[in-house]
Amino acid sequence: MTIVTAPLAGRAIGLPAVPDPVFAGAMVGPGTAIDPVREPGEAVSPVDGVVVSLHPHAFVVVDSDGHGVLTHLGIDTVQLNGEGFELLVNKGDTVTRGQAVVRWDPSAVEEAGKSPICPVVALEATADSLSDLREDGDVKTGDTLFGWQ
């Protein structure tokens, strides 16, 4: 069982509430989303593993069970071309749960006209392989979002 924890603080809202049809329809995979607190901070790794994909606006960490977890910082933030995001690790790095991966400012994302909502997705998973899915309530960085069989 992989435990996936919150990469940042905010309010859990669930994927159906994400203002993007691909995430809202769980086409990328099942999971949840966080409406982040509006202050500069760091998005941290939600699992122990290896950074297999790294962009200013999104990263994927694969754990020892082969589970890949996508953290997407905001919606349509790829259009910001990295502005307002600072990478703190490199692709291929081994990271631990809670280790800072990207520094960003959700308020700046919102001011640029993008949604700061952050999907946290279990890649190549099925909805029934997830348990204890958090889809509401306040979450602190490191709180459990879901378990993954």
Automatic annotation (TrEMBL):
<keyword id="KW-0418">Kinase</keyword>
<protein>
    <submittedName>
        <fullName>PTS glucose transporter subunit IIA</fullName>
    </submittedName>
</protein>
<dbReference type="GO" id="GO:0009401">
    <property type="term" value="P:phosphoenolpyruvate-dependent sugar phosphotransferase system"/>
</dbReference>
<keyword id="KW-0598">Phosphotransferase system</keyword>
<dbReference type="Pfam" id="PF00358">
    <property type="entry name" value="PTS_EIIA_1"/>
</dbReference>
<keyword id="KW-0808">Transferase</keyword>
<dbReference type="InterPro" id="IPR001127">
    <property type="entry name" value="PTS_EIIA_1_perm"/>
</dbReference>
<feature type="domain" description="PTS EIIA type-1">
    <location>
        <begin position="20"/>
        <end position="124"/>
    </location>
</feature>
<dbReference type="InterPro" id="IPR011055">
    <property type="entry name" value="Dup_hybrid_motif"/>
</dbReference>
<dbReference type="InterPro" id="IPR050890">
    <property type="entry name" value="PTS_EIIA_component"/>
</dbReference>
<keyword id="KW-0762">Sugar transport</keyword>
<dbReference type="GO" id="GO:0016301">
    <property type="term" value="F:kinase activity"/>
</dbReference>
<keyword id="KW-0813">Transport</keyword>
<dbReference type="GO" id="GO:0005737">
    <property type="term" value="C:cytoplasm"/>
</dbReference>
